[in-house]
Amino acid sequence: MRLRMLALAGAVGALMVVAASPLPAAADSAWVQEYQRPAQDSRCVAPADETPWQSTWSGQREWTPSWSSWPGSGRGGWVCTRTVVWARDTGPAPWVTAGCTRFNLMGQYVNYLGGWSLAAGATIYSDSSCIVTAGSTGPNVVYAANATEADAKCAAVWPGTRASNPGGLVGGNYSCV
Length: 177
Hints:
Blueprint: E1 3-11, E2 27-36, E3 58-59, E4 64-68, E5 77-87, E6 100-102, E7 109-111, E8 117-118, E9 123-125, E10 133-136, E11 140-143, H1 147-157, E12 163-164, E13 173-176
Antiparallel strand pairs: 1-2, 2-5, 3-5, 4-5, 6-7, 8-11, 9-10, 11-13, 12-13
């Protein structure tokens, strides 16, 4: 049996967090395999010369009936096909997010609601459950794992701003100025 192999990269949707620019799309490396079958009602069985299934692969292990344009000298015909995913690209790690988190040295809290940015004037709370209000933030703020990530987040939401931590903020909280 003739085994036809095609390369395919399946795009994985971009992930967008809050109001930021989307993260780059990741792609899986896939291998579309087909072989010609004599008729529409012919069964699809694994060819004797097929590449043995690898434990690191995922995707469609079984051969399924289909039609393709390559058999019959480009006139098309019945085939058996499968798609083997042999490498998963998870893309860059997503930006960290937060809920109710300690905000400053005065023991106050802000609630990022599962996101990572708050516009100027967001509510500050006096309790770790983010229920009792105690004021509002000054400038725009972001929650980030480090200053580099904070800079990227500030620029994504408020172009032209950079992350700053004047010393009064704690944890991963940064002002965008």
